[in-house]
């Protein structure tokens, strides 16, 4: 295998690492890169047949503070980039902790490997179609919710709340919020119940916005 590496930006302590399967997502996978910080690192994997980038992507990279590493992979083997990404993730986990990792790809074949890494290493690893989706996962989540059965929806709401309500400091109200989302029949119902429960319009609005992927499937009245 021939691997050429191009780096730009100063090296810093890294807590979040993004692995871009560029052959799979192209320039669109880099959407959201301007949200990254100097402590973030982005690996971009590509082959000779996918060595071009849009002007918008170039401009956004120049505006980002993250560390960029471009890896040209030249190997006449199927799924060479996929294997290289998973190998590099294993290597990165061994070097840097704590760490969060995101594979940017439309290929759901990564999901089994991600599940294995999560269970064995305890490191938070996810997959997104763009960097932006890592920060704002509502698009994919909305699609999942729309296709789910009622039972699946309850599970999704519970899991999502357990993971995402932590940042809003409402642990003492978490179970009640979950029940509101499960039992409410309309958007107005959700809003009214959250306002009554929390007695804080700003907090209620933050939670309503966070839970929007589930709210959008409900009728207005």
TrEMBL record:
<feature type="domain" description="PIN-like">
    <location>
        <begin position="19"/>
        <end position="117"/>
    </location>
</feature>
<dbReference type="Pfam" id="PF18475">
    <property type="entry name" value="PIN7"/>
</dbReference>
<protein>
    <recommendedName>
        <fullName>PIN-like domain-containing protein</fullName>
    </recommendedName>
</protein>
<dbReference type="InterPro" id="IPR041494">
    <property type="entry name" value="PIN7"/>
</dbReference>
């Amino acid at each position: 295998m021939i691997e050429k590496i191009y780096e730009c930006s100063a090296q810093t302590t890294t807590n979040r690492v993004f692995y871009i399967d560029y052959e799979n997502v192209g320039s669109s996978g880099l959407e959201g890169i301007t949200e990254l910080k100097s402590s973030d690192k982005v690996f971009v994997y590509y082959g000779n047949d996918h060595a071009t980038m849009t002007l918008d992507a170039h401009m956004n990279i120049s505006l980002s503070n993250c560390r960029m590493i471009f890896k040209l992979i030249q190997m006449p083997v199927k799924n060479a980039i996929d294997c290289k990404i998973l190998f590099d993730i294993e290597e990165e986990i061994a070097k840097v902790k704590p760490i969060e990792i995101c594979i940017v790809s439309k290929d759901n074949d990564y999901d089994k490997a991600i599940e294995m890494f999560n269970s064995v290493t305890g490191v938070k690893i996810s997959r997104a179609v763009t960097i932006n989706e890592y920060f704002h996962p509502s698009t994919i989540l909305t699609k999942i919710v729309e296709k789910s059965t009622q039972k699946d929806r309850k599970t999704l709401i519970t899991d999502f709340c357990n993971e995402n309500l932590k940042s809003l400091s409402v642990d003492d109200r978490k179970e009640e919020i979950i029940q509101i989302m499960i039992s409410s029949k309309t958007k107005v119902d959700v809003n009214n119940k959250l306002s009554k429960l929390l007695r804080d319009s700003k907090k209620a609005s933050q939670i309503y916005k966070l839970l929007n992927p589930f709210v959008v499937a409900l009728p207005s009245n």
